[in-house]
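Sample entry (276 residues):
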Amino acid sequence: MDDYLTVNRLLWDERGPVHAAAPDYGVEQFVADPAFLSQVVRFDLPLLGDINGCNGIHLQCHIGTDTLSLHRLGARMSGLDFSGASLAQARQLAGRAGADIDYREADVYRAAEVFEPSSFDLVFTGIGALCWLPDIAAWAGVVAELLKPGGRLFLRDSHPMWAATGDPRPDGLITLEYRYFSAAAPLVFDEPGTYVETEHEFAHTRELIWHHGLGEIVQSLIDAGITISSLVEHQSIPWEARPGEMTLGSDGEYRLRNGPERLPLSFTLQGVKRSG
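Predicted structure, serialized as tokens:
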């Protein structure tokens, strides 16, 4: 198997500057408006609650728009990502916005080596992160290492049931094509574009990803010493996950046009690190 870190880092190193330049991420809005928050964090607010004064870390932070949004909600934020090119954009944005955010470059499995263990009140993981990780149990262990006893994990991600579905069909049926549960071997895709509008022609298009079942994610966190406090499944997702079958809501989320109750598209999980 190809080294997944090398393949995926090349992919994200190329996409970081492209994403920062695209209107979709709203970089210029962040600079112009000190109160502006990313659409993802705005959606999260009812479940996220008050994080003012929290010492937080955003794992797999990409170009830092969600990280900056959490900073603007009053948290002392750090960010971690394995893509140096993406972190360069995150640091530039933080500097332009006058935000003091500690960004560090490392594979997520090394987070407790580059940040002090048991030092965070909040670990935040945004949507579209877990599929890049081959070992969900090891990830849960890292989350537990980073959190103080009583500290909180806030995770929103795409739903593994959606990830298992096949492409849209003319008859509107939703079918299962990909595996739902974790497996050692990655799924390999070759995608010429990206999820923002751009005329950039990408040189690095291969990606290696893994699916993890919802039960596997929950159990890995329980085994790592985290008590699950909340699990909410959503009928919406921040991108057009099934092209031609979705409508865009005023909240910036896409939902199935017909029978949205048929398929969970994303989920929010929260948990608290147990003492001892």
